[in-house]
Structure formats: C-alpha cells, structure tokens
Hints:
There is one protein chain. The relative contact order is 0.08. Helices cover 47% and strands 18% of the residues. The protein is rod-shaped. The model has no long low-confidence stretch (mean pLDDT 81). By secondary structure, the protein is an alpha+beta fold. The longest helix has 25 residues, at 2-26. The chain has helices at 2-26, 36-42, 51-61, and strands at residues 63-66, 69-73, 79-82, 88-90. Strand 2 and strand 3 (79-82) form a beta hairpin. A four-stranded antiparallel beta sheet has the order 1-2-3-4, with helices on one face. The protein has one domain (2-90).
Amino acid sequence: MNSFVFFFFILLVITFILYLSGNKQTKLPENFFYKTQFKEKYNPDVDTINWDLHRNRLKKFGRSQYKGLTFFVSTDNRIYYLSEEGYKVYC
Length: 91
C-alpha cells in the first residue's frame, strides 16, 4: 500500500513537470497572429507611407492615415481630409 502511494505520487510529479515543460515549449508568442504588418494593414488609424496600402484601407474602411493626415471617403466617393480649421479639403 505504501509503495503504491509513493509510485502514484512520483507519477503525478513527473506528469506535472512534463506538462509544465511541454506547455512552455508549445505556447505561441503573444504577437504570433497579430504582427506589426497585420496591425498596419488592417488598422486604418496607423500611419503609413505606402500608397497602395492607403488606397486599400480607404476602400475597406472609408478612412486611412497617410503621411500624418487622416483621409476619409465621402458618401459620393470623394476623398477628403479635415484642415486645422475643420473644413473638408477634397483631393
């Protein structure tokens, strides 16, 4: 009976150690699926200098930040940005 409890305890400890070591190895990094490129591509609020990415964001989201300015698409599909005074400046 005593050897059975000892064997069971050792087996439990070994299983626990293997679980912890295996869990650390298979754990993916936090940003594995959400890389910087992914953030930049699918977030219209991140500034970019890539014209093609900017155009794609405008089509998909209706707004995009390009070289420090946020551009919007109006209801009649015209592109504009807001001036410092708050006026719409159409491109």
